[in-house]
Design a protein that fits this description.
By secondary structure, the protein is α+β, with helices and mostly antiparallel strands. It has five helices and 13 strands. It has two domains: 188 residues, no CATH class; 171 residues, no CATH class. Helix content is 18%, strand content 31%. The strands form two sheets. A nine-stranded antiparallel β-sheet has the order 1-6-7-8-9-13-12-11-10. The protein has a four-stranded antiparallel β-sheet with strand order 2-3-4-5, with helices on one face. The two termini are 35 Å apart.
Length: 391
């Protein structure tokens, strides 16, 4: 089922007894998110092999048995909501749609996923005692989620709700749950819980091309990944559209005095190679402003995702090892704007003038491993909703 896959994508979450981080003021009637945060903070349970998650307190609705019986009330709900999605231009006649029904309630949801960002569109209905379907307004917490967040009907601590769950970002495993409870006569007030995790970095794979520099590069791989992850957490302007990716990221690993003007020149030449001829109008060998991550032949298990750089904040920088100048490249794994949770670090020969391809020497994949829960944070009401640009 899709919702199972979306609940904790690639994340192991350990629930420990930790104190919550700073939260908004507590109310006389704590929201479901605050109650859930208390369970996370005070539960002594540690699920087997460090895979504990909010599933201990949150359950998501399953799709009804398919195909639906012709003429049944469920078939009528599906038809009603499918037509609603189509009327909004969110569904084509041949596009598949998924239906959720929360057992023990009159709540139904039909949703469809489309686009390169896997964005989800959904509509809702209730089925009264007479078997009449009525379309419901969208829950306050409905955000048409994409990629790392997915919406479904479910129960939080036994209470029926619409739940958007997933990770805070594509690049870390901090868990997000946005909850809009069902009050029986309509939707309640939205709230959001974030579970902040603790991580350690570990070298997962290395690829060496026979260069003597591989050992020296391996010795700094974790430091490079640590520095890059810190850089990515700095506040910066929003990512520009694809056609405007002309700014060179400000990431650096060593002081400029270590590599000097030769290092700056190597990086400048590397960007000319990666971006390709300006007059061609076509993408270069290196795709969209990223170099090729070297594996020297073998492909990773999920090739094309694990063994390629995302172009978001992809950085190249000079690095000096054992007195020699090299070109380093670092970024998260992924394809295009899509990012994964692993940091890729590659080492190349410093390019010469008029060189057309980068010459790889080594590649390192650094994994981010969850080791525990740091704490939780909760917001209630409109503050739980993502802020759109310009708001």
């Amino acid at each position: 089922m899709r919702w199972i896959m979306r609940w904790t994508p690639g994340v192991a979450i350990v629930v420990l007894a930790v104190a919550p981080l700073a939260t908004a003021a507590t109310t006389a009637h704590p929201s479901l998110c605050r109650r859930l945060a208390a369970r996370v903070a005070h539960s002594p349970k540690v699920m087997r092999k460090s895979s504990a998650s909010l599933q201990h307190w949150v359950s998501l609705a399953r799709a009804p048995d398919w195909p639906l019986e012709r003429g049944s009330a469920q078939a009528a709900v599906y038809t009603l909501l499918r037509h609603a999605l189509t009327a909004q231009g969110l569904l084509t006649p041949r596009q598949p749609a998924e239906m959720n029904h929360l057992a023990g309630t009159p709540l139904y949801m039909v949703s469809a996923v489309a686009g390169t960002a896997d964005c989800q569109s959904a509509v809702f209905a209730e089925l009264d005692a007479q078997g009449t379907a009525r379309q419901l307004p969208q829950p306050q917490g409905y955000t048409a989620p994409c990629w790392n967040v997915y919406g479904a009907l479910g129960r939080v601590l036994g209470r029926p709700a619409y739940i958007e769950s997933g990770t805070v970002s594509m690049t870390d495993g901090d868990l997000l749950a946005r909850v809009t409870p069902w009050a029986g006569a309509g939707w309640g007030r939205v709230c959001q819980l974030t579970v902040h995790l603790r991580y350690r970095l570990a070298l997962a794979r290395q690829f060496c091309g026979g260069s003597g520099a591989c050992g020296a590069a391996r010795a700094i791989a974790l430091d490079v990944a640590r520095a890059y992850r810190s850089y990515r957490h700095l506040p910066r302007p929003p990512q520009r559209p694809l056609g405007l990716l002309n700014d060179v990221p400000a990431f650096s690993y060593q002081p400029a005095t270590v590599t000097g003007t030769a290092g700056s020149a190597a990086v400048t030449r590397a960007w000319h190679i990666v971006r390709g001829p300006r007059h061609s109008g076509a993408l270069s060998l290196y795709s969209v402003y990223t170099s090729v991550f070297p594996t020297f032949g073998p492909k990773l298990l999920n090739g094309g995702w694990d063994d390629s750089f995302s172009y978001v904040d992809f950085a190249m920088f000079p690095v000096q090892l054992a007195g020699h100048l090299y070109l380093g490249a670092v970024g998260y794994n992924g394809i295009g704007w899509r990012e994964g949770g692993n940091t890729l670090f590659a080492l190349y020969e410093p390019p010469r003038s008029r060189q057309r391809r980068l010459v790889p020497l080594a590649g390192f994949e650094v994994a981010s491993i969850v080791v525990g829960v740091q704490g939780t944070s909760v917001v209630d009401g409109a503050a739980a909703l993502p802020q759109r640009p310009g708001m």
